[in-house]
Write a structure and sequence with these properties.
- This protein is mostly beta strands.
- It is built from 2 helices and 6 strands; from the N terminus they run βββαβββα.
- The chain has helices at 65-79, 136-141, and strands at 17-30, 38-47, 54-62, 84-99, 109-125, 128-131.
Length: 142
């Protein structure tokens, strides 16, 4: 007879997931001095009333493999100034302070929201479908 020890148990995690709609911006490859290069984007998430939309900006490291492929495909559209509207899934939200370097807020402290981009539910480029959400029957078939 064997018994399970505490070290054999699967680690537990608490997820903080964010689902929303927003615009894909600032696609870039980041190469830190110490560490591995990574793909990064800014998402301008939409919130509030449709007649007075507000934006919340998320600086995201793209971690999902399919999301990485799609971001690389969409880089041309973002750089061309096309509106790339996405349904997104983020995880691991963290707030990080920074100091404004220029402009009227130079020297003041600001707060940035950082997260990990896991996947897209759907994508539209200038109003045209690029990636469509799976139908309810496709979601339950998997």
């Amino acid at each position: 007879m064997t018994t399970r020890t505490a070290s054999a148990e699967k680690p537990k995690f608490f997820d903080l997931d964010i689902h929303g709609i927003g615009y894909l911006n600032r696609v870039r490859e980041v190469t830190p001095e110490n560490g591995s290069p990574f793909l990064s984007v800014t998402i301008a998430a939409l919130r509030g009333s449709a007649d007075n939309v507000q934006h919340t900006y998320f600086e995201c490291v793209v971690v999902g493999e399919e999301a990485k492929d799609l971001v690389r495909q969409l880089t041309f559209a973002v750089e061309a100034g096309l509106k790339v509207l996405v349904g997104f899934h983020l995880s691991d939200l963290q707030a990080q302070t920074f100091t404004f370097k220029q402009g009227e807020r130079a020297g003041m402290t600001g707060v940035g929201l950082k997260s990990r981009l896991l996947r897209f539910q759907w994508i539209k480029v200038d109003g045209h479908p690029y990636l469509t959400a799976p139908s309810a029957t496709q979601q339950t078939a998997g």
